[in-house]
Amino acid sequence: MKPTFAILVVISGVFLAAAQESESFGPSAAVQNTPPATLDGQDIRRVPLSDIVTPNYISGGISIAQMYTDNAELTSTGKISDLSYDIAPNLELNHFTPRVSYDLGISAGFLVNRTLSGQNHCTQSAGFDTSYGLSRFVTLRLSDSFTNSSGLWSSTNSGTAAEAGPGIGTVQQPNNALFTYGRFMTNTVLGELTAQLDANSFVGARGTQSYLSYPSETTDSASRTLYGGNSYTAELFYNHQFTARNWGGITARAERFDINASIGRTDTASVLFFYAFTFRPSTSISVFSGPELSVTAVPQGIPNPIGPFDHRMWVPAGGAVFNTQGRRFSASASFTHQVNNGGGLFSAVTLDSASAEILGQFGKRLRLGPGFTYSESSPIVTSPTVRTYSGRFQLMYEIRSSSLVAGYGRDDWAAPSGNLPNASANRFWVGFSYSILRPLGR
Question: Whole-angstrom Cα distance, residue 27 to residue 392?
Fold first, then answer.
């Protein structure tokens, strides 16, 4: 991880805090109005309100899951079915006070495959999110998310992934398209400094850095090499609440997408305009749009010949995010269109990404719901456009401190512009988890 932007934000925060008048902290100093999650650079919550746990606790446990797939390598030919097992202890710590709060989750275990034993490996995931009040009206936020796993277990919600806090926002997230069932490693870090100008206005700076890596043997569904890389983003933003339900904002953003092995580099600059409408405290919709300029350079000595492409192009960036939470029901949907990292492809891409998820609780013990994700990655450097589709349905039955999980998912991979054969796979999984939660300071 290279938290360059986070370090810069911390340094800036120290100077801003020193410029503020000395003020005492207490509940009365807490910010009463905060922008909707998308404007605030945070991910949306996807669980019913009944699932939100009271702050200040520690929990730990273990999850054991088994999965069957009819195409363990997500290939178009030579399909191999396999049984795999995921065993992962986990730990979560949550702390909240009016001035400082943090949420930490870690999980570490191993994956065992019955047929493809060469893909057995240890897994780790960790999430960390903290907010610190440098003064009464200036807040520093740091967030980090790390995963070392395989694409086969992505989006299963089997209880083996660590999550912490609000996470990184939909607009700032890297390309998460499912190109492979193979191993990968990713880390995304965010640093943010926010100042409240008055009761309804906020201004700040935000930086993110994302890292993606694949082992040399990992390929996509067409047996092509997958490329890792680094992404860097710097943002200046201003948000304002016009009425009790209406928010607006503007963000100036600069990004850089580097592909490993010096394959290429893309720089972008954009100005995004945001609008959010809050139907009620737990239901809102946010939209954003603006022009985005990308400049791409490809050095000499690349491994494959490259056809002509637009080194400099304008893209209309935009998207929408909807989220609602009820006592026993939650639903979310999002769509984004913008330049993003390749996610494993040869260059940065123009990414269309869409997702939807519904989760309902029936009675005291049963939760279930479907989910769907779609992506279309169009590389800036000449290469076939790749589309991925993933659908899933999962249910969870809770018994005191234990829960049983069962789910089904289907994944499709297609590159129609390159005349490459499609690939698809079905996944079935079951799991068991046990956890203990204890309050802190009581």
Answer: 42
Tokens representing 217 are 């043997």
Residue 222 main-chain phi, psi, to 5 deg: -100, 20
Q: Are 255 and 229 in contact, with CB atoms under 8 Å apart?
A: no
Taking residue 60's Cβ as centre, other Cβ atoms within 10 Å add up to: 15
The architecture CATH gives domain 4-15+33-439? Beta Barrel (2.40)
Is residue 86 within 8 Å of residue 160, measured between CB atoms?
yes
C-alpha distance from residue 327 to each of 48, 49, 50, 356 (Å): 6, 5, 5, 19
SS (H, E, C) 361-424: EECCCEEEEEEEEEEEEEECCCCCCEEEEEEEEEEEEEECCEEEEEEEEEEEEEEHHHCEEEEE
**299 Cβ neighbours under 8 A, 6+ residues apart:** 262, 263, 264
User: So where are the chain's domains?
Assistant: 4-15+33-439
Euclidean distance between CA atoms 259 and 228, whole angstroms: 6
Tokens of 218: 């990992």
Residues 6 or more apart whose CB falls under 8 angstroms from that of 222 comprise: 76, 415, 418, 420, 421, 423
Q: Distance (Å, rounded) from C-alpha 216 to C-alpha 146?
A: 20
Q: Enter the tokens of residue 130.
A: 């903290």
Q: Please give the Cα distance from 221 to 379 (Å, whole number).
A: 16
Angle at 152 (CA atoms; ends 143, 2), nearest 5 degrees: 30
In angstroms, the CA 57 to CA 92 distance is 8
CB of 289 closer than 8 Å to CB of 273: yes
CA distances to 89, 124, 256, 333 from 161, rounded to whole Å, are: 10, 8, 28, 21
The DSSP result for 187-219, as a single string, is EEEEEEEEEEEETTEEEEEEEEEEEEE--TT-B
- Closest residue by Cα to residue 431 from 402, 403, 399, 405: 405
Two structure tokens written together for 278: 């809050």
User: pTM for the complete prediction?
Assistant: 0.86
Q: Could you tell me the two tokens for 423? A: 């690939």
Contact 371, 124 (CB under 8 A): no
Q: What is the dihedral of CA 176, 177, 181, 185, to 10 degrees?
A: -30
Structure confidence by residue, pLDDT tens digits, 71-103: 998 988 889 999 999 999 999 999 988 899 999
pLDDT in tens, 112-155: 999 988 889 999 999 999 999 999 899 999 999 999 999 888 87
